Amino acid sequence: MREWTLNAQVPGGYPRLDPDWHLAEIAAAEALTGAGAGLMTAADVTAYTVADEEGVTATATATTGLGVRGLAADPAAGHAGPLPPGTVNIVVTVPVAPSDAALVNGVATATEAKVQALLDAGLDCSGTPTDAVCIASPEPGPGAAGEPFAGPRSTWGSRLARAVHTAVREGALRHP
Asked: With contact defined as beta carbons under 8 Å apart, do 151 and 104 qualify?
């Protein structure tokens, strides 16, 4: 169980090799207590987009830094010199308790929706090399299995996908 989610802005060419400790330092400085989930980006974290699907049933918040675009299986891996800021970080909040399998499925669904949004925004990329997805949700109660599905054709997965698509597309269209 996590008490907080943090999307931290770090400098381009992030030099540290201890992101877990760095995120813990940032969380402590912000007086966040308990276990949390941390994401990092060199993109401007104040330039986020939010989209809701069917009220508060699925909310997606996205920072869309597209300075370093690419395809996941790009054969030209590696880059000389510091990279420009870029990361598409997505935090999705759903009000239901998903099963572990549905959480994994939800990450895949959010990633598919992100790629679709980038393509719909006219960008020839699948995202950036450092993108991250976090799904915030309640935990299943004792003995409860949780929602079994979060794929794009399930009730919660389709809401999640539409919210992510809207937030990422809006952010991509705003990006210079």
From this structure: no
Higher pLDDT, 129 or 88: 88
Can you say whether residue 21 is alpha, beta or left, with left for phi > 0 and alpha for psi between -120 and 50 degrees?
alpha
* Three-state secondary structure string covering 81-134: CCCCCEEEEEEEECCCCECHHHHHHHHHHHHHHHHHHHHHCCCCCCECCCCEEE
Q: Give the pTM.
A: 0.88
Residue ranges per structural domain of the chain = 43-174
94: which residues sit within 8 A by CB, 6+ positions away?
57, 58, 106, 135, 136, 137, 150, 156, 159, 160
8 Å CB contact between 87 and 41: yes
For the chain, state the CA radius of gyration: 16
Q: Which amino acid is at 41?
A: T
